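Hi P.,

Sorry for the delay on this. The queue was packed all week, but I finally got your sequence through. Input first:
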Amino acid sequence: MMEMVSGAFARSAHGVLSEQAVVAGYQPPCAALRAAFAVCLAGTPVLRRDLSPALMAELEHYAAWLQAALQPPSELLVAAWLKKLGGGW
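Then the structure:
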C-alpha cells in the first residue's frame, strides 16, 4: 500500500520511497530548518530530541526530496535533452 507524503512522494508501508517519486515543486526548507542546518554546519551536534515533531517531519520530507532529486536521470529524459540540444538535426 502506498501513501502520499506531502503530496509529492509515494511511500510504501515500510517507509520506502517508490522509484516513481515525483521531484517537482521544490520549495526551500522553512526558516527553522535552515537554522538547524546552520547550527550543524557550525559544528554543534543536534539530536532528534532537540527538534520539535513538526520540524522533524519537515526534515524527513526535505531529506526524502533530496534523496529523490539525487537519482540519475532516466534514459528517456537524457534522450529528450539530446534531441532538444540537437535542434532541427
